[in-house]
Write a structure and sequence with these properties.
It is a single chain. The protein is α+β, with helices and mostly antiparallel strands. It is built from three helices and four strands, in the order βαβαββα. It folds into two domains: about 30 residues, no CATH class; about 45 residues, no CATH class. The chain starts with 6 loop residues before the first strand and ends in a 17-residue tail after the last helix.
Length: about 100
């Protein structure tokens, strides 16, 4: 009888998006991209500028090192992956509880 919280993530940008996820049964939401360009985020200015310069067609969905889909800005690294195939990346945080539906 233990309740496991469900955290919705991906494509959540507005209060309306949050309300929609909560109404579908999520316990909470995870938002990341929305905050990348804020003053509080400690990524480099160049990284933030890449987000600001990106157009919709520059955004691609990739499989992250933990095996979950994520959005990324198309860049040389992603192009190299397409040409050379999968690059083995060892991720120490690959938890078995992460699953794709």
């Amino acid at each position: 009888g233990r309740k496991i919280p469900i955290i919705a993530a991906g494509g959540i940008y507005t209060g309306k998006d949050i309300a929609r996820m909560l109404s579908k049964g999520a316990s909470g939401v995870q938002m990341a991209t929305r905050f990348v360009c804020t003053e509080e985020c400690d990524v480099s200015r160049e990284f933030k500028q890449a987000y600001l310069d990106a157009k919709e067609e520059d955004i691609v969905i990739i499989n992250s090192p933990v095996g979950l889909p994520g959005r990324a800005i198309r860049n040389k690294f992603l192009k190299d992956l397409e040409i050379k195939g999968r690059i083995k990346i060892r991720c120490p945080y690959r938890y078995r509880c992460l699953r794709r539906q």
